[in-house]
């Protein structure tokens, strides 16, 4: 991930509804969620949610899959991994052991 991509991701996450949607999709895991489910869970109108999901998709933080007339959304773990790697690229001045606490915090138990 380069600086421009990271800035796009941060801009996408810099809006409360999009941040909530991203976190919801991370919690949903591999099963993802239908757009209507995301909208209902966050109590956001479907057309508004659609616009927000589109921005998150363009930022590379989520992906989608068409299922008939519906669209299922998933957190894009590669996109999230890329953003985290960009943030930690120069972590701890070449002493990776100093970054271990951060890595432990974000790793799934």
Automatic annotation (TrEMBL):
List GO molecular-function terms, semicolon-separated. DNA binding; DNA-binding transcription factor activity
Question: Which superkingdom does the taxonomy of this entry point to?
Answer: Bacteria
Occurrences of domain HTH arsR-type (ranges): 1-95
Q: Which SUPFAM superfamilies match?
A: Winged helix' DNA-binding domain
**Keyword tags:** DNA-binding, Transcription, Transcription regulation
- Protein name, as recorded: Transcriptional regulator, ArsR family
Q: Which organism was this protein described from?
A: Aurantiacibacter atlanticus
């Amino acid at each position: 991930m380069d600086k421009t991509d990271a800035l796009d991701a941060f801009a996408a996450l810099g809006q409360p509804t999009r941040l909530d949607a991203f976190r919801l999709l991370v919690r949903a895991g591999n099963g993802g969620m239908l757009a209507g489910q995301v909208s209902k869970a966050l109590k956001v109108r479907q057309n508004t949610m659609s616009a927000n999901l589109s921005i998150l998709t363009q930022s590379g933080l989520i992906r989608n899959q068409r299922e008939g007339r519906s669209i299922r959304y998933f957190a894009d773990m590669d996109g999230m991994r890329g953003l985290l790697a960009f943030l930690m690229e120069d972590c701890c001045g070449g002493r990776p052991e100093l970054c271990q606490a951060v890595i432990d915090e974000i790793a799934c138990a």
